[in-house]
Amino acid sequence: MNHEAPLLNDAFGISWLDFNLANVLMIIVSSVVVFVFCVWASRKLQMKPTGFQNFMEWLVEFVKGIVNDTMDWKTGKVFLPLGLTLLLYIFVSNMLGVMTNGVVGHDLWWKSPTADATLTLTLSATVIILTHFYGIKLQGSKHYFKTFVSPVPLMLPFKIIEEFTNTLTLGLRLFGNIYAGEVLLTLLVGMVMAGGLGVVGIIPMVVWQAFSTFIGAIQAYVFVMLTMVYMSHKVSSDH
């Protein structure tokens, strides 16, 4: 049985603050991959795009379409970089554990960072906090906080509960799908190695990897779509 990577205990001299070193490693790897890809795809911009620039422009248009589907473009254009960053980062993070798992001794070091609820809930909490920030910024604090007691003050506790449930569902949906995929892939690898199935045993692994890639892409899309839906509820006056 593989165990999680060792913890960095008492981080910064704080007794209750621990870091999972595998998560830290994979977060850095995901960030570097996304940064390098974006720089590479946009290093030599041309009027007639080719190669990676063409793909990058398609990706920008794709995210722009998500924004347009959820709110007025005049209001939502400021969220295009946020949506693009989330889409790329979550997709890359989802894919890292699909391609392979890295085990050193009995410790799992190479995996999808989104297979850890700590990261996905941190992402979802950040998104929800950003929705409140932009809601206040674009609508003004007085008008914004009135929405929490509209149409009657009795709605306030329900609105507060809604914010917590949105945070939990947004983060746990991503975590559950990616974690389940990695667990099943690990089981398949173990069965193939233990049973000596050879090429025949590799077939279900490849099929599951292809399916996990599809699920990883869908979950990145769903996360960005819901982010823009939550944002539109906070910044659009018609909501």
TrEMBL record:
InterPro entries: ATP_syn_F0_a_bact/chloroplast (IPR045082), ATP_synth_F0_asu (IPR000568), ATP_synth_F0_asu_AS (IPR023011), F0_ATP_A_sf (IPR035908). It is a multi-pass membrane protein. The keyword Hydrolase applies. GO terms for molecular function: hydrolase activity; proton-transporting ATP synthase activity, rotational mechanism. Coiled coil: none annotated. PROSITE patterns: ATPASE_A (PS00449). The chain crosses the membrane at residues 20-41, 78-97, 117-136, 183-207, 213-231. GO terms for cellular component: plasma membrane; proton-transporting ATP synthase complex. Its main location: membrane. It is found in: Cell membrane; Membrane. The keyword Ribosomal protein does not apply. Keywords: ATP synthesis, Cell membrane, CF(0), Hydrogen ion transport, Hydrolase, Ion transport, Membrane, Transmembrane, Transmembrane helix, Transport. One of its GO terms (biological process) is proton motive force-driven plasma membrane ATP synthesis. Belongs to the ATPase A chain family. NCBIfam families: ATP_synt_6_or_A (TIGR01131), PRK05815.1-4 (NF004479). Key component of the proton channel; it plays a direct role in the translocation of protons across the membrane. This is ATP synthase subunit a. It comes from Oceanobacillus bengalensis. The lineage of its organism: Bacteria, Bacillati, Bacillota, Bacilli, Bacillales.
